[in-house]
Amino acid sequence: MGKTALVVGATGLIGRELVEQLLESDRYEAVWIVVRRSKRWSHPKLHEVVGFEEMDAALPHIDDVYCALGTTIAVAGSQEAFKQVDLELPLEVARVAKAHGATRYAVVSAQGASLRSSFFYNRVKGELENGLRIFNFHHLIIARPSLLLGERDSFRLGEKAAEVVSRPFQSLLVEKAPEVAPIQALHVARALIMASEEGEGIEVLTSGMMQRMSR
């Protein structure tokens, strides 16, 4: 029997790539997503739960969790609202998934994530990483990508400007400075899925590692 995956943040840049690649994988016979509003995506392996408050009651046995939840303070409206999406929801997903049998949790964090960071965003990501360790998953995979490339649903001026500036140097950066080179969302998703094939304990994927895994 194939495994069952849960994806949260399925409508975001990395989340969409995760869903697409997981549906194509022979390793999984079912892919569940939790969304705020129904996406009405159609695929025989895809199952949808609308509303995080319905998650616990609706989910079946889960093997692997892929968490790509994330927003910005500008979109969220406040630091507290940001923490709700980037910290509290991923931890709640971990709690529910563990109760449903999950042994592996793969999460998108951020380059520079640290409890001691002077940057609020990176400090929250550090809190998330620290909080997930407490659940003692058999395998916790933490991805720390640099600037993400891909087609976003929402326009982010700063990220778009950085992408435009770095695009002519992308190949050189990947070769000479992979840890700081912008990385395609599909490569982050691919690296998370590859890392989930085996392993145990806490595994941190740096941006450079994910660049190399995608080659």
Automatic annotation (TrEMBL):
Matches recorded under Gene3D superfamilies: NAD(P)-binding Rossmann-like Domain
InterPro entries linked to this entry: NAD(P)-bd_dom (IPR016040), NAD(P)-bd_dom_sf (IPR036291)
Ranges where the NAD(P)-binding domain occurs: 9-116
PANTHER family, sorted: OXIDOREDUCTASE HTATIP2
Protein name, as recorded: NAD(P)H-binding protein
